[in-house]
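User: Need the bound-state model for magnesium ion:
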Amino acid sequence: MDEFELIRRFFSKDNNDTSVLIGVGDDGAIISPSPGHDLVMSADTLIENVHFPDCLPAEDIGYRCVAVNVSDIAAMGARARWMTLALTLPDVDEKWLQQFSDGLYHAAQEYDVSLIGGDTTSAQQISLTISITGEVLPDQAITRSQARRDDLIFVTGNLGDAAAGLDLLVNSAASSKTEEFLIQRFSRPSARFEIGQALCGIATAAIDISDGLYADTKKLLMASELGGHLYIDRLPISMELKKIYNQEQRLKFALSGGDDYELLFTAPAMKLNEIRKIAHIYNIPITEIGEVRNQSELNCSLNDKLINYDDSGYLHFNG
Ligand code: ADP
Ligand code: MG
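Assistant: Bound-state model below.
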């Protein structure tokens, strides 16, 4: 199969998106953005054995590379619209490509984003780069840098599931429904696109959690030139994670395990009711886990005791 045939078979599905004037097949794509909107652009690369293990099924790889890109757009409070895919593969494996394409289009449909072009090359290691473009109304985007002193810190969903899932995926095959659930949370992350958009005008700053709660909270607060405090005992932990791992393991996954793709955001206390409403509408928990403070560091406490936490992901329980 030559490159032309490969693109035609696996990456040329039409989805009747009227904003795509020219899609896959020409030298470049032409899109027609919604009038009066600003564009938000981002790219994310996934490399085999760096960002995902080689045992991850192709369908999950396809799904995941779309979801993690949509998540970046969601964290800006924007709506994901169009993406291109730069695909590097060691060989042409039709079965792999079919499954990858199925996963990719599944996610594209779920998140309502169109594949409008890309590039296909050959090299030893599988590498996938998606460039994604979204839309947002002027001055509505949520950036990282506008957190304010005394804002509360919130997180969507549960934390630590994806890191536990990756651990299970690499070290053992899923042998129970609980393990399967956790593995799915790694291989099929949910981009919180509806919540991201609903938070425009409510959140002062936001980031999606890809490197772990602690590191990403720090990143967010540093961008706002502030520090803060995290109440570790408030972290939202799933029933499934509690079932398999002890408290120390759970907290390590939640604080330093990446890949959850939940949204972390700050908002003033007076927005609490609106935030509760959003959680209710989308049926996703949103938990208040800390506060923004006028300091340079990010502290953590567990049951009112300060905890030393370092970026290597190690938890030091005091006393
Ligand atoms: P060119 O040589 O002009 O760059 P290519 O042969 O690389 O064209 O690609 C042909 C068309 O297929 C282009 O429209 C390109 O955007 C699209 N394309 C190539 N690879 C992919 C891919 N992996 N997924 C989606 N579209 C792709
Ligand atoms: Mg090309």
